[in-house]
Amino acid sequence: MRILMVVSDNTYPPDIRVEKEIKALMPDGHVIGVVCLRLGKEPLYEVINGTQVWRLKVPLRHVRLIGRALELTVFRHMLYRKIGAIARDFRPDVIHVHDLPLAMAAIKVATRVNARFVVDLHEHYIGLLEDRGLKGLLGWLMATILTKEERRVYPSADAIITVVEEHKHRIEQEFRVKDRVHAVSNTADIHALRRVKGHSKAKMRWDMCYVGAISPERGLDTFLDALSKVKQRIRVAIVGTGSGIDKLRAKAQNQRHDIMFTGHLPFSKAMECVASSPYGIIPYRRTRLTEHTVPHKLFQYMYLGAVPIVSDVPPLKRIVSTGRCGLVFRAGDADDLAHTIEKAMDIYRNHTDEWRDMAMHGTKAVEERYNWSADAEKLRIVYRNLEVDK
Q1: What is the largest CA-CA distance in the chain?
Q2: What residues contact 137, with CB distance under 8 A and at least 6 apart?
Q3: What is the dihedral of CA 73, 76, 79, 83, to 10 degrees?
Q4: Which of 9, 37, 100, 211 could make an S-S bridge to 125, C-beta 3.0–4.6 Å?
């Protein structure tokens, strides 16, 4: 089959999920093209490892809030013609749109070129906008528009893909499309992580690490508030960058702990920090976004032996609790997190067997269940069923 992937809110590369899906589908003989946004000076067209990539300019996208609002109300509909022109030349059997913003344009193009339509939800997109600051009248307008579009897009899709069971259940219940929703998670690529696991440890050993984007819904402010209540000195690595990093740096200055902000690191270096830490922290707040997604970092922590300390948002709590591979605290509760950190450090220093059991359970769970090989097969089955149903 010829598959045209439309990436709503990112460029390609380096969208990790899109890259993994392309690699999963190509061995089945699918020919794949990608339409994505041009966020910088990337070429408007290039071929990457056999995949054609078209990048589309979005005017004023860099302008905070106003540019985002224009993109979500006006400019994304203007992209319909450009996507349609690409589709006419590429002649796809399936148009596979990633996330909600370009779903309406993609489904119109799919209808126009007589292609099947797949929508791939990386997250609860309306929840994402809420967490990223689109509130008030503007936030209400965006949420209203996208909620109406959800009602049109999901019932019309030939297949709907989510990253976590909780979001799958939400779509099934709200839109009555149970037979078409599939969970293909953000699980770990064991082959990439195995190289890190076999590598020497990073020079500095941390007690705890965080890897990923730095933004308000990630709950890192709660983490620092909790650390201020922890008496024993702890070494922490925060790997990544984002809009909230300056506030976090200022908040960390008065801490008694050794807290290093590394900024963005290449994947291998970031994973070496994980492999050099007995614990990995995911202190997410409870929001519509975090309750319907799961981050790659959870499975990276589990596989590399950094026992997860997670907030009790449903996907994180479910995976860690059922796997008996980590500790859970109440989201947004700095006191409870401080108590959990103290408990975690006591386990690591004084009850080593208990820590090893959790680390072993995490690694085993990824090897047996939460790995990309298993989820890649789920994705291939979705496409095999589409071929059968043609």
Answers
A1: 65
A2: none
A3: -140
A4: 100
- The per-residue pLDDT for 39 is 85
By DSSP bridging, strand 31-37 and strand 2-7 are parallel
pTM of the shown model: 0.91
The pair of structure tokens assigned to 60 is 């004023």
DSSP 136-196: HHHHHHHHHHHHHHHHHHHHH-SEEEESSHHHHHHHHHHH--GGGEEE----B-HHHHHHH
Residue type at 281? I
Token digits of residue 119: 């929508």
Q: What angle do CA 250, 309, 270 make, to 5 degrees?
A: 65
Q: Enumerate the H helices of 180-266 as residue ranges.
A: 190-197, 220-227, 245-252
Q: Which two tokens stand for residue 155?
A: 């019932």
- Is 344 exposed, middle or buried, given 0-12, 13-18 or 19+ CB atoms closer than 10 A? buried
Q: Phi first, then psi: what are they for 201, rounded to 5°? A: -65, 155
Instruction: Write out the two tokens for 35.
Output: 């339409």
- Tens digit of pLDDT for each residue in 153-185? 999 999 999 999 999 999 999 999 988 999 999
> How is the beta sheet containing 258-263 ordered, strand by strand?
258-263, 235-239, 208-211, 279-282, 307-311, 327-329
- The first and second tokens of residue 115, run together, are 């292609």
Alpha-carbon Rg of the chain, whole angstroms? Answer: 21
CA distance 86 to 20: 23
Q: Give the span between the Cα atoms of 374 and 182, in whole angstroms.
A: 13
Element (H, E) at 273: helix 267-275
Confidence (pLDDT) at 62: 59
